[in-house]
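Quick board copy: two proteins, each given as sequence then tokens.
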Amino acid sequence: MKNLVRILVLALLPAAVACHGPGRSLPHARAGAGMDQAFADYLQAVADHQEELHSILVLQHGRIIEEKYLAPDTAHFMMSVSKTFTAAAVGFAIDEGLLHLDDKITDLFPEDVPEGASDTLRRITVRHLLTMNCGHATDPTHSIWNDKEGGWVRHFLAWPQPYEPGTCYCYNSLGTYLLSAAVQKVSGQKVVDYLEPRLWKPLGIAKPFWQESPDGINCGGWGLYLRTEDMARMGLCLLQGGRFAGRQVIPAGWVLEMSARQVDSAPAGLTSHQVEARGMDPSSNDWLQGYGYQMWRCRHGAFRADGAAGQYIIVLPEQDAVIVTTARINNMGEELNLIWEHLLPAL
């Protein structure tokens, strides 16, 4: 009997793997009554809080158990969820020997280094950009739209840098743009093209649209458009240590580094020093759990890709689950709190 069971399991494995493969929808499973009620309660709470939720998908044990679309299921603007995909591209480039964590940014872009550049500027590395610890006190991204003097890389390198790299967390979307520019420089391909054979195709994601700078470089920190299920595929890959459909897609070690607490973190617009001075409480704040490589740690042992207005890929290893949302919500903390309150206990 045991041998028969083993034969049946082995026979079913290819089908189970295939159902995650390119061109196929992720498999579904029936949720229990408790999860169905929790999901209904969550949706009611979203309505009660007047949140503009566009979609939510809950995946557990590799299968979709709940999903709801309150807007057309088309490619959605990912905002800063884009950063996690840029970090994956950096991981591939490091794995292929094209980049290294300790590469100096000024060595990668010598043509854009300002005259009389400080030694502090010359110490910024790829690692510092990945962890938002380049030494800036403010994010220069908002100012690039008025920059008439040159490219975005040059603008970043000319921005005031009051801190030593590695000593102060400051959310920095233009820093992620530099990572995209670095991958393009060493690979000869835009990140969206570089990822096609390495990530999009293995995950079964049609090559997406990604906005570019005037210099023809994918924005990196924003500008990617994905469907909800595409986000879930990435979440499942991260949950499984970089594996998808039986294949190691993202190097396992890189997934561990991306999702680990590499540095202390702070909400966008604040530095880690300001958080400390204000005595903010990490026990109730998902932006104070630490930052990895372009990913946030969460409460409840989770980690997430995070985009403004409520775009989330939340990975919950302890529950073997992924929760994905698209939205237009101002209070992202409230959005997460409703997920923790209603969905987490049912998982």
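And the next:
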Amino acid sequence: MKKIDIKSMTNNELVSKLSDLKTELFNLRFSLATGNLSNNMQIKNVKKDIARVKTILREREIKASGTRV
């Protein structure tokens, strides 16, 4: 998932996507623990996607409040 794709989503879609990604990360970790995960890079990619979504949500939150932290 690219930053451009994330920026085009609405806040509600981003919150929904974040929830989906967290569920996917849980399932990947579970698969890793049971030895069924074939590609360990999937975990890294999902973590990066979660970070991207959280970053965009935070940027919008700061922009909406009008203050810089």
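Board note added afterward: The longest helix spans residues 41-65.
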